[in-house]
Amino acid sequence: MRADIDEVQVLDVLQVSSLLYRTLLGKGYFVLVEDLPWLVEWGYNINDRPFRRRGPVDPWTRVNALPVTDAIKRFRPTAIVCTHFLPAQLLASLLLRGVIDARTAVVTTDYDFQGLWLTGAFHALFLAREEGRVELMALGLPPDRVAVTGIPIAAPPAPAPARDATKRPMLLISAGATGGDYALSVVRQTLHMRSSFTATVLCGRNNELRQRIEQLVAPAGDRYRVLGFTAEMPQLLQRADLFVGKPGGLSSSECMAAGLPMALVNTIPGQEVRNGDYLMEQGAAVRCNTPATIGWKIDEVLREPGRLQRMQAAARRTGRPEAAADVLTGLLDGPSRPLVVTRAAQKTILAESEQRLVASDLPGPSSLVRLVDLAAGSTVALLRAEELGDLEKRYATPNGGLVLRDGQAFTSLRGEERRLLRAILRRDDELPVRVEGPSPAPPILPERPEEHGP
């Protein structure tokens, strides 16, 4: 931890919300995953459009989040890190209303960026991989507010020891914290494998599952070790040779940081499928789509000479064990003023996404422009070019810039302009900015000679 941090508070938004709200959003999601996975995938895809939902947090969410707002006011944090889109949306509303003055980071916890994470006000957005940053730059987001750090995880207790390729490979079979029943079929499949291996099976808090698996593997002697919920996870990740389980964002990030490749089972449609796609693209995972072939799939990995070692090397290349420290440094040492994306700009970004355009394709009044803090050099607002007119009438300077002011006419401004000034001026009376944009067109690369005939 940095020496300049005095106190840290962890706040679970759902846990401090009402029981009904917590049940619908928490337990309701897992019910849908189990019984209506197609609906989960549909919901994920339709919410993948950035800024599909614009404006303030809906009244029901705001009422249920009142305990969260009160807790933030009492604690008076210097910085807030959001690792879920729900608090990120709530914090954007608080920034725009001038309720808080804390630096706010939005940290995505899956490998693929999803549009639901994008909010109207934040200080920094941290992504898991470069492709997400390229996507946001194409949509017009300023590069100084988006960084690639990986998915933050707890620091490992010690550097991972080198794996001994001469020993029998150790499988780490995980049923997740709640103990999914799918682990029983996974273990049953491994009993038919031809390869020599040992396995540690994690059953989470599901004691019934643990007993059933213990009975199933009893004839196999000491080949299997069956555990319930355990605090040994960091050590197990370092000792294992292949992880067998679901590709949740944090699980995947922890495995990659430990150089542990994955055999993916029972993936949830949406974010877990996309996590798996990325890991397979990197060569650090295989996916088992059919329960009947799980044992065969793992056997194929173990029996092919050098394959497991290549996957382990790919996992090490993919891992970002310093992600948490990088997020903290980027937030605390980054811009002190938030970036505000006006609703008109949000509408433009949504239209770009739906029409498969990039920001540089947008013409005239609908193009995106940026307001840049002259002193700090950081972007403080993203807006449509047509929105500049009112700002230039009020705040233009002879040299072509703007000096935003919190003057007597502040309360008479339109709502959007008032929210913009309130968020970025903070307690200052004025802020000199320059206008940049629209976004430049991407460079046209020369064709390679082999693309032409002789």
From TrEMBL:
Q: What is its EC number?
A: 2.4.1.315
Q: Does the keyword Transferase apply?
A: yes
Keyword tags: Glycosyltransferase, Transferase
Which protein are we looking at?
Processive 1,2-diacylglycerol beta-glucosyltransferase
> Which species is listed as the source?
Arthrobacter nitrophenolicus
